[in-house]
Design brief:
By secondary structure, this protein is an all-alpha fold. It has 4 helices and no strands. It is elongated and about 70 Å long.
């Protein structure tokens, strides 16, 4: 039988991922501290802690992959018109605001995908915390299970 303390700890594990907006890597530090200190006391807390940490690691991996794909498109677009062999200083430097490159469209599309992923991440975290508050188990979608 679950008591309110276990439900609250599981809820705070999910909500502690929002601490990343205040503390660097708070989305990992908060859930790990709460999970490690309470995982032996309850299987319910243990399951929610593993899910929250696995989801944050998965999101980090997906963001790294998207960034690795997106950043080169913007760099190639910015440095497209610069001749590095005959570069005479900053007085010759200009940015051409002409016709957009297809690389910019691809990079912009990946950027929009990253924004949608961020919004979905927030929705999933809130949903997981509500399920934990109600005493239900929650499995994040698109999560790689690093901790089993």
């Amino acid at each position: 039988m679950l008591d309110n303390h276990q439900k609250n700890i599981a809820t705070f594990i999910h909500l502690s991922t929002f601490s990343r907006f205040i503390i660097p890597f708070g989305n990992f530090i908060g859930p790990i501290i709460l999970w490690v200190t309470n995982k032996d006391k309850s299987d319910f807390v243990d399951a929610h802690g593993k899910q929250a940490i696995n989801f944050q690691i998965s999101i980090l991996l997906y963001a790294f992959i998207l960034g690795t794909l997106t950043i080169p498109f913007f760099i190639f677009k910015i440095f497209n018109g610069i001749d590095f062999i005959d570069f005479h200083g900053f007085h010759d430097f200009h940015i051409n605001m002409g016709k957009p490159s297809p690389l910019l469209y691809i990079g912009g599309g990946l950027g929009v995908l990253a924004i949608l992923g961020f919004i979905l991440e927030l929705v999933f975290i809130i949903n997981a915390s509500l399920k934990a508050r109600d005493g239900e188990l929650y499995k994040y979608p698109l999560t790689i299970n690093f901790l089993k």
